[in-house]
Each structure stands twice: as C-alpha cells, then as structure tokens.
Amino acid sequence: MKIELSQYRENEDGSADFHVDMDKESTHSLINFALVTLLAKAAKEGTLYTPDAEEEEDVNYFYDEDEDIEYYYVEDDDAWYYYDEDEDDWFIVEEEESDNEVWFSLKPEQIDAFFVDELKSCLIRSYTNNVFFQEDIDNSIHVRNACKTLLRHYMIPSEADDYLDKVAATYEC
Predict the structure, then answer these.
(1) Annotated domain spans of the chain
(2) Residue pLDDT, tens place only, 41-83
(3) Angle CA 117–118–124, to nearest 5
(4) At what angle do helices 24-46 and 134-154 cross, to 10 degrees?
(5) What does the alpha-carbon distance between residue 32 and residue 119 come to, in Å, rounded to a whole number?
(6) Beta strand 61-64 with 16-22: parallel, antiparallel or unpaired?
(7) pTM confidence score
(8) How far apart are CA 40 and CA 46, in angstroms?
(9) Which secondary-structure segment (H or E) carries 4?
(10) What single DSSP character describes residue 59?
C-alpha cells in the first residue's frame, strides 16, 4: 500500500494545495473508508429530518428501561435525581457503597488519545500474530495498513512517521 504526499503548498488564506500519489490498493481502501464514514454520517444526520424525529438528546437525562425509572443529572447540585411516580416527584439518588462503577466524561482529545493508543496496540498485534494461512496473513497485512493510515490521520504527521518508522525497524527486519 502506497500513500505519498508529493507536493504541499500553504496558501495565504489558510488553505493548502497538495498532491497525493497512491497505488490502486490505497485508493480502494481510502474510498471504502470515506464511503463508510459518509454513509454513517448521512444515516445519523438523516434521522434529524424524519417527521417524528425528536429534539437533540439531553445528555443529562437517562431512562433505565429494566427498572422503568427516569434519571436526571442536575449540574448545579452535582447529583443525579430519579423520578418516583408514586410520589410524583424527583428525589436525589443516594450513592451505594458497593457500587464499583465510576462515571466520568472525557474531552474529544482524550478520546482521540485512547483511540491512538488502541491503534498502536492493534498495529503491534498485526506484526506479532502467529498466523499460518495465507488468508490470515493477508488480513493481518490489511489491518496493519489500515492502522498506519488511521495513525497518520489522528496523530501529528511527523510524530506518526517517526512512530511508524520505529515500529517498522523493530518488526520488519
């Protein structure tokens, strides 16, 4: 798989002109990725235009279908409330001592960091798989190339190239 940036020029208006040389396999993979992304985005946005589409989801609201209980997070109180139908009122959720779950929110850049770490692990596993059948070897190579492409997308290009060169030097002896 070959993806090579052959020309790059930044314009005064902040845009950039560049030329990318790719082989047939890279073009095919990139188009597949773009189409899947485009279709997923279209499906998500398409629900906004359906006649019975609801307004934007409230991230502070949660409905537990199993227990048939509504929960709402009040940021000013830093607490979750549940709705009691019998009392027709909202009550604060008391924290259980035995609850081992911890909930926290992540910023987009933190999620990207987790994603990059997982891509790095996946890339390493693609080199260290003990596969014997040609189909498995081919799949491993496709996964490796996809990981490289995605790492170049999510990382700073120079850092991605340095990392990929280091991995190649280690595993492609």
Answers:
(1) 1-56, 58-105, 106-173
(2) 877 776 666 665 456 677 788 888 888 888 888 888 888 888 8
(3) 90
(4) 70
(5) 19
(6) unpaired
(7) 0.41
(8) 10
(9) strand 3-10
(10) T
Q: How far apart are CA 17 and CA 9, in angstroms?
A: 5
| Start-end of H helices in the chain | 24-46, 108-128, 134-154, 157-171
Q: Are 20 and 6 in contact (CB under 8 A)?
A: yes
Q: Which of 26, 47, 28 has the alpha carbon at shortest distance from 36?
A: 28
Pairing relation of β-strands 3-10 and 16-22?
Answer: antiparallel
**Secondary structure letter of residue 93 according to DSSP:** P
Which single residue is written with the structure tokens 């409330």?
Answer: 81
- For residue 51 the two structure tokens come to 């006649």
Both tokens assigned to 101 = 């779950």
